[in-house]
Amino acid sequence: MGARDLPDDEQAIVEAVARWVDREVRPQASRLERAGEYPAALIDQMKEMGVFGLAVPARWSESAVSTRCFALVTEELARGWMSLAGAVGGHSVVARLLARHGTPEQLERWLPRMATGEVRAAMALTEPSGGSDLQDIRTRAVRDGDRYVVDGSKTWITNARHAGLIATLVKTDPQARPRHRGISILLVEPGQVGVSRDLPKLGYRGVESCELSFAGSRVPADALLGGEEGQGFAQFMAGLELGRVQVAARAVGVGQAALDDALAYAQQRETFGATIWEHQSVGNLLADMATKVHASRLLVLDAAARIDEGLRSDLEAGMAKLYASEACMQVALDAMRIHGAAGYSAELDVERYFRDAPLMIVGEGTNEIQRNVIVRRLVERSRES
User: Fold this and answer.
1) Is 364 one of the annotated active-site residues of the chain?
2) Is 40 exposed, middle or buried (0-12, 13-18, 19+ CB in 10 A)?
3) Residue 131 pLDDT class (50, 70, 90 cuts)
4) How confident is the model at residue 291 (pLDDT cuts 50, 70, 90)?
5) Which has the higher per-residue pLDDT, 133 or 237?
6) Considering Cα of 89, then 245, then 76, then 51, what sign does the dihedral take?
7) Of 203, 283, 224, residue with least CA distance to 98
8) pLDDT at residue number 136
9) What is the band of 237 on the pLDDT scale with cuts at 50, 70, 90?
10) pTM for this predicted structure
11) Beta strand pairing call for 183-188 and 274-275
């Protein structure tokens, strides 16, 4: 299962992105990453190719594709530089949220411009005082006439400085029981929230991750996603299915890049009179790496196919994200082992893969949370059958 199983037009999109990655991204990714430079020129080229519209429904996007195609394009972007795939991740989840839950006015205002990349979106869930328990968020939005007054802060918000729209999880009713009934989503625009600082990171550089500060910020009431309070938690949970598939696809892309580099090096490097892939210890590593990457890709495409079929995919998306991210971390480490001391050098891409890989383990819900999701859905489905 891969690009060859897609319709011809979607297969052509994946192949075009792969060629662009090889031609434009890979030659300069390490330089941009070390400089911490925002990849503005590459982002502009992605806009021209229609990448930001891939997950926007066809009613508003000329480049709309299936979730399977979107996942494979994400993989190719991450194979070149994971940060580029990250720039599309939150944007695509917000597009899905809007398409499913937006009011008619919200749909027409945002989705056409998101499809072209004129507006790039981010999502703001995580807070400094909490992580995976989204029902315990502290950011408060109080209705005041035709506005919401928002107080609180968010952290680890990808693309925050370059986003024209930030879908923000807020508490509109702290007394609600169950707690999730008090949560809503506000579609926040630049100028309605302050960016406190950019966070220093091990990897995932170039695309910023920021802290956001709401201090009496006034957001129009018509920015409430769907126009009804108390729906935000369920809305975001459904959107995170696509988000977890996207993060898993990033892991496949980084893993594939690490495998490709290790395989090429193992065929060039010689020790004890033989190329190193011929030594069983190295050959075994390569065999296991290839198997992990292939299995990860199949899990991602299986979860993506369920989304395309309109089926609930939290179990499959959780499995894909869990397995692919852990596999990516191991594959990146094994690629470094195969390269030996050279793999530890910043002159090669291998050390970048190793620094980028951990993000997928903790991003879009930690893998500990994924396991909770998986076992809960396993039990639910066993009772349904």
Assistant:
1) yes
2) exposed
3) low
4) very high
5) 237
6) negative
7) 224
8) 82
9) confident
10) 0.95
11) unpaired
Which H, E and C letters describe the chain, residue by residue? CCHHHCCHHHHHHHHHHHHHHHHHHCCCHHHHHHHCCCCHHHHHHHHHHCHHHCCCCCCCCCCCCCHHHHHHHHHHHHHHCHHHHHHHHHHHHHHHHHHHHCCHHHHHHHHHHHHHCCCCEEEECCECCECCCHHHCCCEEEEECCEEEEEEEEEEEECHHHCCEEEEEEECCCCCCCHHHHEEEEEECCCCCEEEEECCCCCCCCCCEEEEEEEEEEEEHHHEHHHCCCCHHHHHHHHHHHHHHHHHHHHHHHHHHHHHHHHHHHHHCEECCEEHHHCHHHHHHHHHHHHHHHHHHHHHHHHHHHHHCCCCCHHHHHHHHHHHHHHHHHHHHHHHHHHHHHHHCCCCCHHHHHHHHHHHHHCCCCHHHHHHHHHHHHHHHHHHC
What the block records as the tokens of 228 is: 């009804």
Q: How long a stretch of residues is the chain?
A: 385
Out of 309, 364, 368, 384, the active site residue is: 364
Question: Given the structure tokens 């400094």, which residue do they identify?
Answer: 128
Q: List all residues 6 or more positions away from 182 whose beta carbon is below 8 Å from its beta carbon.
A: 171, 172, 173, 174, 175, 176, 230
